[in-house]
Amino acid sequence: MSHDIYLDANATSPVLPAAASAALEAMQACFGNPSSSHATGLRAKAMLDGVRVRARRVLGAGTGRVLFTSGATEGIQTAVLSALCAVRERRAAGEECGDLLIYGATEHKAVSESLAHWNRLLGTGLTLCALPVDGAGRHRLDLLRELAPRAAMVCTMAANNETGTVSDLDGIAGVLRECAPRVYWMVDCVQALGKLPLDLAGSRIDYAPFSGHKLYAPKGIGMLYVRDGAPYTPLIIGGGQEAGQRSGTENMAGIAALGAVLAALEQGDSFRTHAELAAMRARLAESLVEAFPGIVFNAPFELTLPTTLNFAVPDMASKDLLDLFDAAGVRVSAGSACSAAKAAPSYVLEAMGLPAWRTSGAVRLSFGPLATDAFIDEACARIRRCGRAARHPALAPSTFSGDRSGLLQVSAGGRHGWILFDADAATCVAIDPPAGMAARIAAQVRGSGLRMLAVLGTDADPAGAEARAALRAALGLDTHAADTLGWPRAGAGVGSITLGDGSAAPAIAIGDEVLVRLAGGDGRGAVFLAGRARDGKLGPAAVRLAFTGGLMIGEAAPHGLARLVDGGSVLCHGLDAGGAPCTTAQGLRTAPAGPLQQLQPERLDAFLRAHEDALLVDVREACELEAGTAHLHGIEAQAVPLSRLAEHLGHFLAAPRRPLVFVCRSGNRSARAALCLQRLGHAQAWSLAGGLALAPAA
C-alpha cells in the first residue's frame, strides 16, 4: 500500500503540523526555563502562561485550576490522591464521608488501578465498587442513586475509549446533587477534547484529566482541571513549578504543541463539525456492512462519539480482523491500546452484557476530527477490499506448490485440528477440530465449495467428542453414519488398504489420496495416515501425513507407527510437540535446534544480495495475502500461510541448504515457522525480526 490509513485515533493521533512547528520553535528559539528571571526565561514563561489562558477558555475552567501534566494517567493519579487525602482528613475530624470508591465498570484501567493503589498506600480502607452499565455502555443511574449516599469518590468517563459511548454527565450530576452533595467526582475527559462541548466551571465536576496525544499533540503532555474549592494534594513535590502544585521543569515543547492544538480548537476552522464527523462515520459504517454482511455494531451510534465504531463479525476473531486490516494498510485496534498485548475479551463489552463472540471478536475503528473526505474515501475502499479478501477461500490449492490437495491447521485453546482436502474432488475431512471452532470451520468449508466426508477424532475424550458433534451439526451431517470417533460406518465409501507391514486397515478416498485409520495404543483412540496408495498398498514412503493427536511415534500400538511411516512423513499433532504442531519422523530423532535465527530489517537487503537463491516466504493467512502482497527489496514473497506449513514441510526440507526467510506482520508467526524448520534440520531458516511492520517500504 502506498500509505497507511490510520483508524486508531482513540489510541493516539498524529501530531498536528502547527503543533510540531510550535514544539520545534519552543526547543530552538523559546527554549528558556520559565522559572528563570532573565529575558529568555521570561519569554518562555509568557508562552506557558499564554497556553494556560487559552486552555482555560477552551475547557471553560472559570476560576478552577488548570495544571500541565505528563498526560491523563498522571492527572488521574493526582485527582485520586487529592480526593483520598481529603477523605482521610475528614474522617480524622470525625466527619461522615462514605466508605465506597465508585467507578464505572467501563472506565479505563488507569482509574480502577489508581483507586486501588492509593487506597492501599494511604490506608483509607475504602471499598472499591464498580458501577454497572446498561447494554449501550451508559452508567446505571438507578444503581448510582442507591450507592451514592455511601460514596467517598465517584469516577466516570465523559466518553468511553473503546465504544465511544458518551456518558450522561447531567444525569450523574443530578444524582450526586440529590444523594451525595459532598462526594468528590472525577470525570475522565480524555476522549472529550475536540469532540464534545466543555464547560467545566458550569458543571459539578471536581477533577477532569486530559491527554494531549489523543488530539494531535505529542505524547507526554496533558492537563488536569481542578474545580475551585476542590481539595488538592500535589503528586510531585520539588522545585515548586506550576505554583507549587506540580513540581518539575515544565515540558515546554509539549505545552507549546498543545497550545497550537488548543488554538486550532478556538479558531474553529480546522476541525470537522459534529455533523460532518457523523456523516463520515456513516460512510465508514456503510462500507463495513458491505464488506462484512453479518457485522454487528457494539454500541448505538446515537449515543456514541461520531468518530468511533466498535464492531464484531461472526466467525472472525478480532486478531484475524486486525491482521486482515493491517495487510490492507488499515490500522485499527481491538480496544484500548494499553490492553492490546493481553489476549482477553474486552472487559468494557463484557460489562455491557454482550455475548462472548462479540466481546472477544471486537474491533475498534476511530478517526480524528481532522479527517478529510479523501481520507474517508480511501478508508472505505480499503475496507471493501478487506471484505473481498475475507471471502477468499481458505481451503484452496497452494499457489506455492501447485498441489490440488492441501492441509489446513485450525487451532484454538492450545489445541490443533486439521482439515485435509482435495480441490479437484471438492471433498475434505476434519481431524480433531478444536472446541469453539465449529461455526468458523463450517464457514470455511462452505466458502471453499467443499463437501465434508467425515469429522474424525484421535481420542475419545468428552471435550473432543463435543467439538466433533458441534462441527457435524454446523455442517448438517448425519450423526448416525459414523462411529464414536467419526469414522464412516462400513459401506459409506470405506475401503481397505494394505500397509507397509502387510496388515490391512480401513480407508476412505480423498481425491487421489487415501486416509487410513489405525487403532490407538489404548484401543479407544486412533491414528490416521494419508498418502497416495498404489495397487491397494500404502508403503512407508507413500505416507505423506500422519495425524497422531496426543500420541508420539512408538505409542500407537498395536500397529507400531514407526514401521508404517517414512522419515519424511509429516506428523501432525493435537498439541505442540517440541514447540511446534507438526514435525517429521526424522525430525523426532534430530537434536534440538539452537536459538531462533532472526534477520534484522537493516540486514535483509545485504542477505538477499549475498544469497541469490534465497526464498522469501510470507506466512500470513490467505485472506491477508489477498488483501496485500509483500514485496521486499524488489522480491515478491511466496505465499505459504502458517496454517498450511505442515502441507509444505516436505517442499522446504527437500532443499535444506536453500535460505528461507519467513515474514509476517509482526514477526511472531514467521518466528514459529522458522523455528519449526530449524528443529527439523533446516540450517538456513530465518525469521525477519519485527516483521513487515519494521521492514523497508515496498
Average pLDDT rating: 92
Distinct helical segment count = 19
Secondary structure class reads: alpha/beta
* Portion in beta strands: 15-25%
CATH class of the largest domain: Alpha Beta
Low-confidence stretches: 554-558
In the CATH hierarchy, what is the architecture of the largest domain at level 2?
4-Layer Sandwich
Oligomer: single chain
Strand order, largest beta sheet: 21-17-18-19-20-22-23-24
Could you tell me how far the N terminus lies from the C terminus, measured between alpha carbons in angstroms?
8 Å
Largest sheet entry:
8 strands, mixed
* CATH topology term of the largest domain: Metallo-beta-lactamase, Chain A
CATH superfamily of the largest domain: Ribonuclease Z/Hydroxyacylglutathione hydrolase-like
DSSP helix fraction = 25-40%
Shape: elongated
Using the CA coordinates, give the radius of gyration.
30 Å
Give the total of domains: 4
β-strand number:
31
Descriptive account of the structure:
The chain has 19 helices and 31 strands. The chain has about 700 residues and is an alpha/beta fold. It has four domains: about 5-10 and about 270-390, Aspartate Aminotransferase, domain 1 (Alpha-Beta Complex); about 60-240, 3-Layer(aba) Sandwich (Aspartate Aminotransferase, domain 2), CATH 3.40.640.10; about 405-590, Ribonuclease Z/Hydroxyacylglutathione hydrolase-like (Metallo-beta-lactamase, Chain A), CATH 3.60.15; about 600-695, Rhodanese-like domain (Oxidized Rhodanese, domain 1). The protein has an eight-stranded mixed sheet with strand order 21-17-18-19-20-22-23-24. Helix 2 (about 40-60) packs across helix 7 (about 250-265). Mean pLDDT is about 90; it is low at about 555-560.
